[in-house]
Amino acid sequence: MLGAVKPDSPGPCEFLSKSGSKVTFPSSPLNETKCEKHQEALKLFCQEDQSPICVVCDRSKEHRAHTVVPAEEAAQEYKGQIRSRLEMLKKEMEGIAALKLNGEITSEELLVLTHYERKKILSEFEKLHMFLEEKELLLLAQLEVLDKEILKRQDEFTTRLTQEISRLGTLISEMEGKCRQPASEFLQVRLCERFSLSVKGRNFQRDLRESNVTLDPDTAHPHLILSEDGKSVRWGPARQDVPDNFRRFDPVPCVLGCEGFTSGRHCWEVEVDGSSWAVGVARESVRRKGGVSLEPEEGIWAVGQLNPIQYVALTSPWTSLPPDRRPRKIRVALDYKGRQVAFFNAENNTEIFTFLAVDGMFWTVGVARESVRRKGHILFRPNTGVLGLQKYHHLCMALTSPSNTYVSLKNNNNEIGIYLDYELGQVSFYDLSNEELLFTFPPVSFNGERVFPYFCVFLSHIKLSPRG
């Protein structure tokens, strides 16, 4: 029985997908498939059984109630459905392929991003490591400087105490001796000493030119407040907003006068007040930044009050001044050619202290390792490569560690013999006037390093002796 193909009836594709069987259609008249039962051509197609049948089968009881269509018509119908489904599958495949391509592109982009982030992280951590290493080196260097400063302050403190003990001992001996003198001799000595001091002060102050000193604001520490006329200065609680130029002192609270001197004899007077101050002269080349020691070695000659009870001349080490030399008005006198700086009580014209810059003011002789430090602040010690003997004014000392060792140099003799035994690692100093041993450093090991004769000269004169 012939009929129309039902749109909702199962087609060959659904049949194939469900059963895995193959539906066979007659291909052509030349190659017609025959019914196995009736040996007739399979020219019809049963929709219910989903199989081709012959005309005899169509009339049979088995297919009589079934929907039967010509095989060609059924084939075209199903081929149309297959083509439609095929187009859908192709589009689906293209969509999946596009999705796959987009996924690959997105993955590549993400991989590029992760690669970039990885490089960025490595770079940032490398910078961080470098910063931390530099910070570590900086902090260690600062600690090293602090260690040296602590040792230096300790040496200065020990030296000051030793000197003060020595001075007091000498003063006690002199006073005990004077107490044993007859009255006439005792009074004569005092009169002579007083006259000598007065004459000395008058001689130094002769022909001094009074200088009109004005303070230079470009050199003043940020905490120092200058008056409008530049004639007074005081410490302020707040740091001022001033240009940080190379001439300005920081962190040491100092200020220079505007006018410098290159010749002549000059003086000026300063009124002081408070418990911590210093006045004097400084070289133009004095260090302005970082830690600056107020001492002649740094280019500063000054007297000052360190606290309510300590009044000193800022020598190296400091020289304590007696209580009667603490005036409120000080005359500073500079003899440029004579290389002297003196301080006087401007109220009674008495001398407070005089810095002498004659030969022998300051020198150091000895030996130094080739690796000795050449730049920056140097501590003269065996552990820094210097084994030396130093003289400052009347003081002579071996530069030992952790503090100096005082050496007795008789008759102020300045002819020193230096003897080096490299193999034994020993350095000795002799007074050549009497061939007396002054000092011998404990043996050290030079480890094959070259050792050189060493001289440090400041406002003094050294001449090598031809003596063998």
TrEMBL record:
GO terms for MF: zinc ion binding
SMART domains hit by this protein: BBOX, PRY, SPRY
Pfam family, one: PRY
Top-level taxonomic group: Eukaryota
Residues of the B box-type domain: 30-71
Protein name: Uncharacterized protein
Residue stretches making up the B30.2/SPRY domain: 193-385
InterPro entries documented for this protein: B30.2/SPRY (IPR001870), B30.2/SPRY_sf (IPR043136), Butyrophylin_SPRY (IPR003879), ConA-like_dom_sf (IPR013320), PRY (IPR006574), SPRY_dom (IPR003877), TRIM/RBCC (IPR050143), Znf_B-box (IPR000315)
CDD domains named in the record: Bbox2_TRIM7-like (cd19762), SPRY_PRY_TRIM7_like (cd12888)
